[in-house]
Amino acid sequence: MVIEKxxxxxxxxxxxxxxxxxxxxxxxxxxxFKDENIYYLTGxxxxxxxxxxxxxxxxxxxxxxxxxxxEAKNSVCNQNIEIILLDNDKxxxxxxxxxxxxxxxxxxxxxxxxxxxxxxxxxxxxxxxxKFGFIDYPLSELRIVKDEYELKIIRDCxxxxxxxxxxxxxxxxxxxxxxxxxxxxxxxxxxxxxxDAYGKSFDFIIANNENSSKPHYCASNxxxxxxxxxxxxxxxxxxxxxxxxxxxxxxxxxxHINFKxxxxxxxxxxxxxxxxxxxCRPGMISSELDNAARSxxxxxxxxxxxxxSLGHGVGLEVHEPPFINSKSNFVLREGMVITLEPGIYxxxxxxxxxxxxxxxxxxxxxxxxxxxxxxxFIVN
Length: 380
Description:
alpha+beta, 4-stranded mixed beta sheet
């Protein structure tokens, strides 16, 4: 399949449609700080660069400092974007541009400006009598449905992730038990890079036995031993992310004092994930999808042990809308990419989580991974 070049001008038009119809504050101008949103609209990704993008009348002004200027010139793909090299204080230069264009009202991206930076900017805006309002999640609507260019990259990212997991499964019992959780996390990241990823999409959760009952546990120098090993990880590739979780078993699990309970919750989690995935389709409400897994886990007596949401969107960020939880009213649409990751966690024993990434298609869904869900053992 030939994937056409990204139409940045079309994305800019879509953004203008969002802000023009924004009810809380009427303006056709917007100031954007979030790196991912700047990249989505321009092709320039200066992660943590402190860049800003002013959009006015379907034209953009990208403010970057000297360190990122050459990179911005080489990567901006939208012909309607002018790159501004910062010589002075960024806020003052933004105000100068607003005055040049006789702009008297502007929307500010609320979620990606620090309190201190906003306080400085507000003083300047008020001094020039420029009215301002705030916008947040409507901007995420711009990225919530992936185009075919994005889906192609995400598919490749997931293939890298799957291959790297299979590389880890080639370890024998002696090899894997000679490592700590942290060592395994670093080796897994190495496989991702070897398999063409640019790096990891987040800090991996590599949790052995009782550590696996902590859903966002940080890997430590604890040596891996017989029992449960929960692995939550993802790749970063061409600015897009992947996310996956698998729970495997090390050594003679029968030595684990509560192996029957661990096996029981594994099967419950696996079935809960299957039930949720089977209902993935356009028109499905996120809260109903969450309930498909949650009610099954509760019915089997572990409702209180599943305390996080079922899933979330993945794209330029590893956690982005739509959020799949019991209070979410997002309606699934073709082109959305979400995770499905039910889990059961029992303090002092351990936890089980199984996570896949799913693309919502015209007729239903497609799982990005081809990994089977049967229990995996690495034994002596």
